[in-house]
Amino acid sequence: MVKHSILPQRGFFPQPVYLIGTYKDDGNPNFALITWITFCSVNPPMMMFASRGKKLTRELVEKNGMFSANLVTTNMMFMADYFGNTSGYEKNKCEDIQAEYSKGPALNVPVLKESPWIYECSLIDIIEKGDGYIYIGEIKNILVDGVIEDIGYGKIDMINLKPLIYAPGQYYKITEKIGTVGLSKKKLIE
Q1: Does the residue 33 lie in any domain?
Q2: SS3 117
Q3: Structural domain containing residue 164
Q4: Alpha helices in the chain (DSSP H)
Q5: DSSP-derived secondary structure letter, 73
Q6: Residue 10: inside a domain
Q7: Is 135 left (phi over 0), alpha (psi -120 to 50) or beta?
């Protein structure tokens, strides 16, 4: 296969979609669409997300020292897109689209009723890199939908969970499982 070079950029990187939740000073929730998110520690369990530019969510996470990370499903695409394209400085986004939320059971963070998998995190570090910031949170609680029973490693049914996947400028869905970790070893042994 012939390859060619392109300029360094962020044009690929398919990623899951999360809505980062915090409370405003007036007690109203604020959620922002974040796709630059991943895990960064197993013990203790930690996750990180990156953000750039002037954003209310960044300010509130820094001020409050905590956040929720609400997995977005394909059914939540409109909500995520609205939250990602509407300023929290000017509007009560949840009220605008009647998004239902409650307070997390472990931390004072808003959690979305419609999200099937939610992390409640306490902020432990902020790292400035280039024109962006990396927020590292220790996971204090995970809320999962009642229909999710087997949460063991590799057991979560992604097709039925329907996570929304983002690749710059587009949303996608998962439609097929094609293998398991360790598949290559099994093939070599056979």
Answers
A1: yes
A2: strand
A3: 15-189
A4: 56-64, 77-84, 93-97, 158-161, 183-189
A5: B
A6: no
A7: beta
